[in-house]
TrEMBL record:
The keyword Transferase applies. Its EC number is 2.3.3.13. Belongs to the alpha-IPM synthase/homocitrate synthase family. LeuA type 1 subfamily. It is an enzyme of class 2 (transferase). Keywords: Amino-acid biosynthesis, Branched-chain amino acid biosynthesis, Leucine biosynthesis, Manganese, Transferase. This is 2-isopropylmalate synthase. Residues 6-267 form the Pyruvate carboxyltransferase domain. Gene3D superfamilies: 1.10.238.260, Aldolase class I (3.20.20.70). The keyword Manganese applies. It comes from the Bacteria. GO terms for molecular function: 2-isopropylmalate synthase activity.
Length: 387
């Protein structure tokens, strides 16, 4: 059975850019969009055109350079938003308007001061209006994670009848458990008339650290699009990390899913986005963190030196990292030291290794990490004495 293709919808330039302090100008956004297209994402959410003239200009500029990926603009279920999104997407080869409204009880009552009936009406009008401008209309049910499933299915069905081609089910507050989110997607698959003719999309936030798990659970239960950002950047604790979902699907062949993303570009695009947006990547970040392929404890180093797979489930080259690294610390053993010494030109006998190891531990206790320069110094001082 051939693998089912999961669409990767990147929202680095819209939801991702909502991170405080990481505003990009149009030139920078166009460059990010070009790299996302080269990476192989299916949809680029370029911005929220009504939000500012600058964002409108960026979406329009991206729409005129991106050729293969769908270019999407966000709008609320508000006439002016939708018309502005449509204008900004005029030059797009494959335009999509992403429109929607809050559907949970708290969004309806407190944020929108409305009623479920009126919310359904607004959703339907918004989709129908967007449909007058573009064929591809995505409907989002904001806070779907905390929305009653029956009501969610009802409003989604109405959106499909009004012409929606994609149904986005955001866990806006990052609240759901993976089983719960997966069950929600399954419920929609089974209870929304016409759902088989549209794309069902996940859009998960990471407030409880479960955005990736929830997105994968959604896919296992029938979603065929994942919305995500590079490095998982986004509001509060961020969005689903693109690099994580892509690699989960790649590393688990039993899921029978694939994406169009060239994983070998992940490390480079992660660095580019981090530097351009001035949002550092935490060192232990899965896939793209500085320590994702670094081994520092003696037991692990010994295993990795004997066979990489003992402590690594991904070949670093698969994500664009040249090799795994053996970091020398006071927790490292003789195997790691001998390995590193050999890499920098010292083939040590057992006795020489014993001598060097003692000095190495002294240096390691004094410093956090022992670098190649320290090893050269130890070799110069200690091996000279020993010979
Ligand atoms: O998290 C969310 O609900 C969103 C929507 C606007 C799609 O970002
Ligand atoms: Zn979001």
């Amino acid at each position: 059975m051939s693998n089912q293709k999961i669409q990767i919808f990147d929202t680095t330039l819209r939801d991702g850019e909502q991170v405080p302090g990481c505003k990009l100008n149009t030139k920078e956004k166009v460059e990010v969009a070009k790299r996302l297209e080269a990476l192989g994402v299916d949809v680029i959410e370029a911005g929220f055109p009504i939000s500012s003239p600058g964002d409108f200009e960026s979406v329009a500029a991206i729409a005129s350079v991106v050729r293969d990926a769908v270019v999407c603009g966000l709008s609320r279920a508000v006439e002016k938003d939708i018309i502005t999104a449509a204008e900004s997407l005029q030059k797009a080869v494959r335009p999509r308007i992403h429109t929607g409204i809050g559907t949970s009880e708290s969004h309806i009552r407190f944020k929108l001061n409305s009623t479920p009936e009126k919310i359904v009406e607004r959703a339907v009008s918004a989709v129908a209006l967007a449909k007058r401008y573009v064929e591809d209309v995505e409907f989002y049910a904001e806070d779907a994670g905390r929305t009653d499933n029956e009501f969610l299915a009802f409003i989604c069905e109405k959106a499909v009848q009004a012409g929606a081609t994609v149904l986005n089910i955001p866990d806006t507050t990052g609240y759901c458990l993976p089983e719960e989110y997966g069950a929600k997607i399954k419920f929609l698959k089974e209870n929304v008339k016409g759902v088989h003719n549209v794309t069902l999309s996940t859009h998960c936030h990471n407030d409880l650290g479960m955005a990736t798990a929830n997105s994968i659970s959604g896919v296992i239960n029938g979603a065929t699009q994942i919305e995500c950002t590079i490095n998982g950047i986004g509001e509060r604790a961020g969005n689903t990390a693109l690099e994580e979902v892509v690699m989960v699907l790649k590393q688990h062949p039993l899921l029978n899913k694939t994406t169009g993303v060239d994983s070998r570009q992940l490390n480079a695009i992660s660095k580019y986005v981090s530097e351009t947006m001035r949002v550092p990547v935490q060192p232990n970040k899965a896939i793209v963190g500085a320590n994702a392929f670094a081994h520092s404890s003696g037991i692990h180093q010994d295993g990795v030196i004997k066979k990489r797979e003992t402590y690594e489930i991904i070949d670093p080259k698969e994500v664009g990292v040249d090799h795994s690294s053996i970091v020398l610390t006071a927790r490292s053993g003789r195997a790691a030291l001998a390995y590193r010494m050999k890499n920098i030109g010292y083939e040590l006998t057992r006795d020489e290794l014993d001598i060097v190891y003692k000095s190495f531990l002294d240096t390691a206790d004094a410093k956090k990490e022992v670098l190649d320069d320290d090893l050269h110094e130890i070799a110069a001082n200690r091996l000279k004495v020993a010979v």
